[in-house]
Amino acid sequence: MNTSYLHFNERDLARAGELIRSGKLVAFPTETVYGLGANALDSDAVKSIYAAKGRPADNPLIVHVFDKAQIFDIAAELGDYAKRVIDCVMPAPITIVLPKNSLISDVVTAGLPSVAVRMPLSQQARSFLRAAAVPVAAPSANLSGRPSPTCWQRVREDMDGRISAVLCGEACTVGIESTVLDLTQPVPLVLRPGAVSAEYLSELLGVNVEVLSDPTSKVNSPGVRYKHYAPKVPMVLDLDDDVDKLCAFYDAKLAEGFRPVLWVHQPHRFGNRRAVEMGADDLQAAANLFETMRLLEQDYDFIIASFCRRKGGAYDGPAGRGVLDRLMRACGHNVI
User: Fold this and answer.
1) Count of CB atoms within 10 A of residue 89's CB?
2) DSSP 8-state code for residue 214
3) 3-class DSSP state for residue 27?
4) Among 27, 104, 236, 332, which is 20 to 30 Å from 146 by CA?
């Protein structure tokens, strides 16, 4: 199909809203990554998300809203924890998992009795959702398994000809997907780490918010069941920040005929070897993560990433756990 590239003006926003209501797919910016949206109340439209992405049908989607009042129509019930997060945190890069209302079909939730709901912080995202005037189901706007797009040009790489329109907005500032917080159980559980930390949520809710420890578990969360974020070239992950080990691994790959690159903290430590900075801190690492991954796969044929969350160190902030989660999945848990 012919994909239209729309902008954030009154006419194009109205057009994007019309497309959503007519069952079409529209990609749009949020503060985290670009989303691929369909009318969450239209099962056929939601099915077309899975087709466009090549996404497994048992991988649930997040429903996006522009107003907190919409959550009461989507969720069957809201407990005290949910009300507190909605009142005190949203809009934010956080998704909450709640018991679902019958208004939301099983296609959206992959047959689960729960629904994931998010109200983006991005003003552009909310202006689009307001124009759509319906809840919008949306995963990231990339082919399944690929690094998530954080600018509209990356959406075009994966989705041109597959969807009706792309809203060309600002680059995403957070850079990794939202924190997913399961509130369907007595103890809140972070299913996917992101910019809103478990530590912050624990303080807010007055309870120890746990973090999913086994990422292979079958859980009520979008974006955690399958290999994600993978570049087109082989990638490994180091968790020690051991310069000697990394140099030796790089040299071995070079001897095998690869064109490797080190993706590290403080590239100057690696002499004349090709090295790219991960980021000065965890927030920068998160913001640049997927874009850098896509750039590296264009210039190199083996990525050697290193990420070490030292206490008090460069990657010890609230987004550090989210960055580590994405890197682990991108390399297929191939840790050296």
Assistant:
1) 19
2) -
3) strand
4) 104
